[in-house]
Write a structure and sequence with these properties.
- The chain has nine helices and eight strands.
- By secondary structure, it is α/β, with parallel strands linked by helices.
- It has two domains: 143 residues, Rossmann fold; 53 residues.
- α1 crosses α3.
- It starts with a strand and ends with a helix.
- The mean pLDDT is 95.
Length: 204
């Protein structure tokens, strides 16, 4: 069987941990002692009055206005490059709306992501192109795209994607979880804490 690797984008290729922490501290939403993890920041903000709205505003900054300050996760580019050099197709499949739900006139989130990939040298260093990137408006359409592309491996940071009813049968599921514990261990996906670990799982 020919291998085709699919990769999620947010929190799998790009990290918002430090950026989310810095923005929330600057706005007085969390104490500086809060762990610099996007999930920890989100959970702390959601405890506030109107916390959900505040978190959505932070997300507009993370995925839009401040996207250029997000960090490339170490190891992902070497992994993709080795795949490409070995003739293994790689596609990025992301659940990302064009505009923020909280602000329909806000920044184009898809353009921000593509601009980040270009500005950081991600496209150049990985040898991927914008044509290898697929943004989908819903989680349903994301799993449909995974199936349509014929991905045999998919790497994501969200268990919920693997739990979608339409997720294609037979695809090897790898959960990327570098810092946060996995509350739902399962026999049908493998947990990897780094891209080096993913390389060992896929490139054998």
């Amino acid at each position: 069987m020919n291998v085709h690797v699919g990769i999620d984008f947010d929190n799998t290729i790009v990290s918002y941990d430090d950026l989310a922490h810095n923005l929330a501290v600057e706005r007085g939403l969390i104490p500086e002692s809060t762990p610099a993890s996007k999930q920890a920041v989100r959970d702390r903000i959601r405890l506030l009055p109107a916390g959900d709205v505040e978190w959505q505003r932070i997300q507009v900054e993370l995925y839009g206005h401040k996207m250029n300050e997000a960090a490339l996760i170490p190891g992902v580019v070497p992994f993709i490059r080795i795949c490409r050099e070995g003739g293994i197709p790689v596609s990025i499949v992301s659940h990302k709306t064009e505009r923020p739900n909280i602000d329909p006139t806000g920044p184009n989130l898809r353009d921000a992501a593509l601009n980040w990939m270009d500005a950081t040298g991600f496209f150049l260093s990985s040898s991927l192109t914008p044509g290898d990137v697929y943004f989908e408006p819903t989680r349903d359409s994301k799993v449909d795209r995974i199936a349509d592309l014929g991905c045999t491996v998919f790497i994501d940071d969200l268990i919920e994607v693997f739990r979608e009813p339409g997720f294609p049968i037979g695809v090897t599921k790898i959960l990327f979880s570098p810092t946060d514990g996995v509350e739902e261990p399962s026999l049908d996906f493998t947990v990897a804490s780094s891209w080096n670990a993913i390389s060992e799982l896929v490139l054998v």
